[in-house]
Amino acid sequence: MQSVLAQTPIGRTAPAWRRGGKASGIAIPPASRRLSTVANFSPGGKVQHTWSIERETQHTYVDPAKWIDEAAIFRALEVTKEWAKDPPRVREILEKAKEKAFVTEHDPVNVGSKSEFVQGLSLEECATLLNVDENNVQLMNDIFDTALAIKNRIYGNRVVLFAPLYIANHCMNTCTYCAFRAGNTGMERSVLTDDDLREEVAALQRQGHRRILALTGESPKYSFENFLHAVDVIGSVHTEPFGSIRRINVEIPPLSVSDMRRLKETDKVGTFVLFQETYHRDTFKKMHPGGPKSDFDYRVLTQDRAMRAGLDDVGIGALFGLFDYRYEVCAMLMHSEHLERHYNAGPHTISVPRMRPADGSELSISPPYPVDDAAFKKLVAVIRIAVSGTGLVRGNVCLSVRLFVCLSFCLTRGLPACLPACLPAWLGDLSVCWFVGVHSYPARVLRGSTSRWYQASENVASSYNCYRCI
Ligand code: SF4
């Protein structure tokens, strides 16, 4: 029987982001890499997914256990421990990574034209870099230099900022690390009205934002229909002389293929972002004991469903702190390869949220696998090297980036426009980045203390985002 995947139209051009940046013309993988596995898996048998009903029941998928190969990841991490202590071997991988990121080939059909291929690392190469000791200053500097060279070559000095906009904090899930989880009775729940939304979006526009990330929890109290309406409202806000929101990225519960199509039809949505949180099944089960999110396979196939619906601009991510960061990075590499192989387009972005304390969550205060700054910097650099054509999303950006943003705001909009936005943050106890980010915390949902909301939101997304920067 022919698989559904085989019936899916392929050979689409890579999305704009894959062709963008300094390396225009980034090519898609050859056809021989696609459709290599039989698609006969249907997720979601035991768990009810009522937030978004599937009307296209014909879809089957490649079993995620086949492409998130846990045993292969553990094996790679084990065998490369010794390799990571061998500087020539590590440098060889870094040299190869630079070459692979900058491959330029002449097009055999259009003689004279060139394509630039962005290729990443193999699982073993990635695992070797992740196993490098963070105290080995020389090797770490080599890793950072390589990441920086690749980033400069592909993206230049481009930093893109977007502001999260939380629309509702009702949630029926039980994620142990999140303040919004159903069992946290201490959290006040609320939904932004249309007027609230307009007010928030206008405030963000006045601060110079053109891109937002719209978020909501999973609950019948705030349905997908409500969310579609919110997208319309956000898109309709226009503030003189600042203009409209150019790009609405979304981070909402997993959607069915049919609802992905409806989201795409709004023609207002940029990236569909969904974090797997952890790609380690046993840990996933422990961290998500109930609710629709407890269905690992349904969640990890969300980007597949988006691709089937033609929504080929997707983001993936893991919440660092839940499991071994080295495992999560390798798994994200596998996820990225799976999407490239089957849909000609890998993820637009990879997010790297790190667990922060959240109200009412003991686990978030002492994460099972804390990631210190040195390891965090390394993992970000390794992702940049391993998946070089994909944007990186970081929350809670470093002070230098915040200062850079403040400065650019002053330079582009002028001091008079900058002052009202910047001053409260400079004068108060808020960090510099809040001069742009604070309005992304809806005042009407907020009600409690700013810092409590801030801490909660760090776990589900981030307080403030920039991407394509390390
Ligand atoms: S992480 Fe998301 S799904 Fe889980 S409880 Fe928080 S808002 Fe709900």
TrEMBL record:
This is Radical SAM core domain-containing protein. SUPFAM superfamilies: Radical SAM enzymes. The keyword Transcription regulation does not apply. The lineage of its organism: Eukaryota, Viridiplantae, Chlorophyta, core chlorophytes, Chlorophyceae. Signal peptide: none annotated. Residues 167-316 form the Radical SAM core domain. Keywords: Iron, Iron-sulfur, Metal-binding, S-adenosyl-L-methionine. The keyword DNA repair does not apply. It comes from the Eukaryota. Pfam families: Radical_SAM (PF04055). It comes from Volvox reticuliferus. GO terms for molecular function: catalytic activity; iron-sulfur cluster binding; metal ion binding. Residues 1-25 are annotated as: Disordered.
